[in-house]
Design brief:
The complex is a heterodimer. By secondary structure, chain A is an all-alpha fold. Chain A is 78% helix and 0% strand. In chain A, helix 1 packs parallel to helix 3 and helix 2 packs across helix 3. Chain B contains ten helices and no strands. In chain B, helix 8 crosses helix 10. Chain B is globular, with a radius of gyration of 18 Å. Classes of the chains: A mainly alpha, B mainly alpha.
C-alpha cells in the first residue's frame, strides 16, 4: 500500500476517466508510478463492473409506482390535515387528568369522609386496626378511584375520537 | 414497503423545490419519461450497493415515490437525475442503519446460474466482481460508483452522501486504494486495464 500521492494524479485520473490510459505519456507514467497505477486499476475495474450484465430482471412497473406515490401523497396530506386534531386529543387527555387531580386535592377531606361512609360496616369492623382516616388506606383508595377515573376518561376520549373521524 | 416509504421524509431536496413558487409536481408523462431514462442505471447502482435484487427494487420505488412527492421548479434532466441518485443513496443508507447490511443480505450465486454450460465462467466472474465490490464499505461503494460509473461531480457526491465537498477527493483516493489492494488480493493483478 502506498502512502504518498503523485503530483500528477489529477491529470492521470482525468486521462483514465476519459479512456486515454493507453496514450504514450499516460501509459509511461502508469508504468513508472505505482500509486497512479493502482488508482487507475481501480477506475478501470469499476468500469468493467459497471459493464458486467445485471441479473435479467424486469424493473418494477412504473404504473404501480405512480399509483403508490399518489396514495402516499394523499396519506401525507391527510396526516397534515389531522395533525392539529391529534394534538388537541392529547391536550384534552392531559387537561382531563389535571382536572381530576385538582378535584381530588380540592375535595380531599369530603372525599375521605365519603369513602369512610361507603365502606360497609363489616369491612370497617375488620379494619378496626386501621381507621378510615389512615393516609395509606386513603391513598390506595384514591389511587384506585383515580385509575377508574382515568379509564373512564380514556374510554370517553376514544369514543369522542371515533366520532371525530 | 408502502408504510416504510410513508414514514420516509423527503429530505434535502435542493434549491429548486417547494420554496420556489413555480415549483410543480411531476406529471405522469414526465414521470414515465424520467423512469424510462433513469430507472435502469439507478437500479444497477442500487443492486451493486445492496447486492440484492429485492432491496434494489424497493429502494428504486422509494426513490421515485420521493421524487413524485415534492414539487420541482426545474425539469432539468441532469438535476432530476442527481436528485434521484441522492434520495436513493439516502434510502440505501437508511436501510443499512435499520440493520439490513447489504453484505449479509446479498444473494448467493445459485447453482443453477453457476453451472449453466454456456454462461458458467462469465457468471462466476461477474459474481466474483460483485463480491469483491461488496467487500468495500457502503460509503466506499457509493463513492466509487457515483464518481467512476455515474461520473458525478464531487459537489454532487458530497450532497448525496452528506459529506463536505473537500473531503470527497480524499475519500475517493482511499476507496480506490482499498479497492486496488482488494483486487491484488483477489488476483486481478496490476495493470488489468
Amino acid at each position: 500500500m502506498l502512502n504518498r500521492t503523485c503530483a500528477q494524479l489529477p491529470d492521470i485520473l482525468s486521462a483514465v476517466a476519459a479512456g486515454r490510459e493507453r496514450e504514450t505519456l499516460v501509459a509511461a507514467h502508469l508504468g513508472a508510478c505505482p500509486s497512479c497505477c493502482e488508482q487507475a486499476d481501480a477506475i478501470s475495474w469499476m468500469r468493467r463492473l459497471a459493464a458486467a450484465p445485471e441479473p435479467p430482471r424486469p424493473l418494477p412497473d412504473p404504473g404501480v409506482i405512480w399509483w403508490k406515490a399518489q396514495l402516499l401523497r394523499r396519506w401525507q396530506a391527510e396526516r397534515v390535515a389531522f395533525a392539529p386534531i391529534e394534538r388537541m386529543h392529547r391536550v384534552e387527555l392531559a387537561a382531563g387528568f389535571a382536572s381530576l387531580a385538582v378535584f381530588l386535592v380540592w375535595q380531599w377531606r369530603g372525599f375521605s369522609t365519603l369513602v369512610a361512609r361507603a365502606i360497609p360496616a363489616g369491612v370497617a369492623a375488620m379494619s378496626t386496626a386501621t381507621p378510615p382516616s389512615n393516609p395509606v388506606v386513603l391513598a390506595l383508595v384514591l389511587c384506585g378511584t383515580a385509575a377508574v377515573g382515568a379509564m373512564v376518561l380514556a374510554g370517553l376520549h376514544r369514543m369522542l375520537g371515533r366520532n371525530h373521524l | 414497503m408502502v408504510e416504510q416509504a410513508a414514514t420516509l421524509d423527503v429530505g434535502d431536496v435542493g434549491a429548486h423545490t417547494q420554496a420556489d413558487p413555480r415549483a410543480e409536481l411531476l406529471s405522469e408523462s414526465e414521470f414515465q419519461e424520467l423512469y424510462r431514462l433513469h430507472a435502469r442505471p439507478l437500479w444497477a447502482y442500487l443492486y451493486r450497493l445492496t447486492g440484492n435484487t429485492a432491496d434494489a427494487d424497493d429502494l428504486l420505488q422509494d426513490a421515485y415515490c420521493r421524487l413524485l412527492a415534492i414539487p420541482f421548479a426545474t425539469r432539468d434532466d441532469r438535476e432530476l437525475r442527481a436528485y434521484l441518485f441522492r434520495v436513493a443513496t439516502n434510502a440505501a443508507t437508511d436501510l443499512w442503519r435499520r440493520g439490513g447490511r447489504g453484505t449479509r443480505r446479498s444473494e448467493p450465486l445459485t447453482s443453477e446460474s453457476a453451472t449453466t454450460a454456456d454462461h458458467g465462467d462469465g457468471v462466476a466472474l461477474k459474481h466474483d466482481m460483485s463480491r469483491t465490490f461488496r467487500n468495500l464499505k457502503p460509503q466506499e461503494r457509493m463513492l466509487l460508483w457515483l464518481a467512476h460509473v455515474e461520473g458525478s461531480a464531487h459537489r454532487d457526491i458530497a450532497e448525496a452522501l452528506g459529506l463536505k465537498a473537500a473531503s470527497v477527493p480524499v475519500l475517493l483516493f482511499r476507496a480506490r486504494r482499498k479497492l486496488a489492494a482488494l483486487l491484488r488480493k483477489k488476483g486481478y493483478g496490476p495493470g488489468e486495464r
